[in-house]
Amino acid sequence: MGGNSPCASCKLLRRRCAKGCIFAPYFPPDDPHRFAIVHKVFGASNISKMLQELPVHQRADAVSSLVYEANARVRDPVYGCVGAISYLQNQVAQLQMQLAVAQAEILCIQVQQEPMAMPSPAVPMDGSDDKSFLLHNNLSPYFNLASNSSNVTHESLKREGFYGQDMVS
Predict the structure, then answer these.
(1) How far is CA 157 from the centre of its chain?
(2) Side-chain-facing half-sphere of 78: CA atoms under 13 Å
(3) Is the pTM of this model over 0.85?
(4) For residue 24, how far is the Cα from the chain centroid?
(5) Are 36 and 59 in contact (CB under 8 A)?
(6) pLDDT by residue for the chain (169 residues), tens digit each?
């Protein structure tokens, strides 16, 4: 900054903020925690090297990413933001499975409630078995749906999630 108030990095490192300080545009003096956490995880020297290697127009995005990763590393020192991504991907997969089960149950109920208005298909005369005939005519979901939806097990596994919430699968 070079002015009256040093940037957050120079304040934390207890040095004079030079006019061309590489940290000043990205770590303002009113948010010292932002630099402190990035400094704790990556170190001031490494941050400086990373910023100097980048074009000026990409530095703000890089600092934003460093702050996000540093916060994630403090919460989860082993996996960092990859742990958060993995947690969210698992949650999406579980919700997709629950949605598929619910849709299958709805379809099963609909099939059970509607009268059998479908014309009964003629038995194939070419000697092929009934299963291939049903698969060929896309009728197998109607016959195997109840048994497939009952095979799905719902286990409640509780463990602490990335953000401190319980994960239920």
Answers:
(1) 19
(2) 3
(3) no
(4) 32
(5) no
(6) 445 689 999 999 998 988 889 999 999 999 899 999 999 999 999 999 999 999 999 999 999 999 999 999 999 999 999 998 999 999 999 999 999 999 999 999 999 988 665 555 555 555 555 555 544 555 444 444 444 444 443 333 334 444 454 444 4
